[in-house]
């Protein structure tokens, strides 16, 4: 028996390294990572050429955006039609908004607390680079308008239309026929997305090359303390706060992050959480969250559950106060949280909107010079990655929490025709949730 087994073992040992390398070079994550590194190198050594790569990153994001509206629409309509119980749909929506408000408020508070403790603004501002913040400060006094926010937010518009269509379909006698047709269309859309995602390395390369080439890594040095504080705070929020929430529901934040690693690398390269919105919805469904929960929570979360943005905004206000030597009382800090709870909702999906929100907040306080935003312009692009990564992880956790609490979390059964990764297999076996 030993003689028979030895050749097989030798063959297996020879094949194993080849299979590992084959898995690496055929893994999209590997190529996205290589693209990010290539973008940093090009941006550092040939900034002029790197800036021209912006068109590649922008084009990829524009293509991905074409899929966002149909995917949200189809997912929500099919999800609501599948539930059948409209009271449950309303319950999921209300529970989601309540969860968003509680967690977003907590993220605002943790941003202020960490800034007060670590004091990133206690530096010499005369050594900082000054940008032109006039286009943001000029509109600072303008009040937040919910109608304008809705009219400029395609995600929310599609969400509303999809909910209405889903409700109408529930009462229609042609419901089954419509659901069958929409189901086929959904498969076609997701198949198209699958092929577009093969371009992800190009998008990550273009986005990272432009950022490094345009702003330069040297701009990070003067504001290294702020950068470090922001990334540390985001890390604490993800692993302690979100990790604690996941643990309560017997889930692992580490395994969830590993499961969505491709989406996280894409967000890191493009500095946009929108670039991963369609694929994160697909991943969460594969993981076991019901279509209705994914369809309702993710699109709403992209507008109302911006944990990373909330941390950055509250921390930036305290940073500027420290930079100008402005003392803020406990009441004024609570006021900052209150103001940002409303204005931060307008920071979704529009480039530069975060600065407009900051300008509005500083104007409302009447204590910190709005012109201080000019000091943040040079380094803001490098912190957008942290914001986007925290936002997408936060929305993923929110979806899992709502699905688990509503008993709408069911790992997909074996035999379903889907391409599963190792992590997907772990989920189906129950390992993802830490179940032995």
UniProtKB/TrEMBL annotation:
It is found in: Cell membrane. Keywords: Cell membrane, Membrane, Symport, Transmembrane, Transmembrane helix, Transport. GO terms for molecular function: fumarate transmembrane transporter activity; malate:proton symporter activity; succinate transmembrane transporter activity. GO terms for cellular component: plasma membrane. The chain crosses the membrane at residues 20-43, 63-84, 96-118, 154-171, 192-210, 230-249, 311-330, 336-359. The keyword Coiled coil does not apply. GO terms for biological process: L-aspartate transmembrane transport. Its main location: membrane. It is a multi-pass membrane protein. PROSITE patterns: NA_DICARBOXYL_SYMP_2 (PS00714). This is Aerobic C4-dicarboxylate transport protein.
